[in-house]
């Protein structure tokens, strides 16, 4: 081990004679002789992995007074302030070898294979949101929809578009309570019921403008309550090795919903009756029905169960899915110990009201990153295409509904493929911060070219410039896919400790929806009065975005979900501790009668 000093978790054998009597999971403060290799462990699991993979065990021999080792709490090694800045990437030999956790190939592991094959049920939450969020973009290309609602434009069109996100903002103070009080699965169900009601209102009978707007409000409200629980269940069920990929995959499925919406509209655009737009709207309820029934195939979050003093159930779930039913699996025992002890500490020492986000430096940093991530996810120029592609295409001479629908559908497929291929599959290879940076710089370059081509077309009518705008839109979404939307939810969820994770994610969704509302009101007005010149606003935002990512964003690749707290809170992080151990165990080791040595099996 290459650490000058610090603390780490061990699975130990307790000896009172030459025979091993029993095993314990404890945490030791240690000191090594060499100072040349003073590097930091990326997480307690990393050290544990090296022991397991190297076939080594840590033993304690009782009755050795010369030892100076003592249990002092579950913690990371001490970190200097400079190590808390920049990207916080851990640079240990274990990381370089990929031994951050015991290597597991999920499709060869029966428990994980069963778990991950059920995950698409939870991914539907993002797909539903993508369908709902993109549907209006396609409906605007339909003559029957335009005629039925009187060709809305300007602020009226802004209200039609924004009301769903206004509903999402309204769910801010409810979604976290549903997730924390009733469980992650029940939280999803509550949101889906509200979404059903909103869908029915939009298509039942003679729909008025007020009914349509009210229905969209409920769809947004219900969707965000559901989304306030689904990603939590994903991140809290995933094996630590696969956390980044699985949680990032969640929000990339937003594009799958937008693909379905785009091509559903394309399939009904030939109709001349109200069925042209009512069929796509009614289909908003199809995926929620599947999720409503299927979610009970998944287990509840082990972390939520621990928070409700149901530790046995939590351990059983970890054993079943992370250890193939082996209750003696060392990794799962350590994983459970960390989860259970951390949540116990948080319950004992935390005040979990909303003001908790302002009380500590670490939480203020978390809140800032959530706000920036939420804002940039909607206000980087992507909001123009998401809701006003019709107006953009009109501005470069593409005016027919057929052509606009084909471009819209193709763009959604392209965006989905690059989001899955780049962000979800590369997140654990490149890390979060690098992907954010690639996306930010790439979007800045392509959006600037897009703006220039739009200016040329507006001033000269050059068809080549108009075609270049379409090409730049596709390239823009190609580079955006490195981070957005995949990391929007995954990053916000993993930087939060359990006790404020539901509230923090609710804030993230609320701020994302608020940024969308701003977009949806401002964009049509800006496009109408400034035309292509309005794009300079987003160029300025993209410059700020790149600077914020470089100087403020924290890399979370490597540590376990609980251990990430150290990157924000340092030694004040509530990550287990001596006080979580039995009194007999504490006193035995604190008495100074233990000697620590390595024994090769």
Automatic annotation (TrEMBL):
The keyword RNA-binding does not apply. The chain crosses the membrane at residues 115-136, 156-174, 186-205, 217-238, 250-269, 275-298, 367-389, 409-428, 435-457, 469-492, 504-522, 534-554. Keywords: Membrane, Transmembrane, Transmembrane helix, Transport. It is a multi-pass membrane protein. The keyword Transport applies. One of its GO terms (cellular component) is membrane. Pfam families: Sugar_tr. One of its GO terms (molecular function) is carbohydrate:proton symporter activity. Residues 118-557 form the Major facilitator superfamily (MFS) profile domain. It comes from the Eukaryota. It is found in: Membrane. Belongs to the major facilitator superfamily. Sugar transporter (TC 2.A.1.1) family. This is Major facilitator superfamily (MFS) profile domain-containing protein. It comes from Exophiala dermatitidis (Black yeast-like fungus).
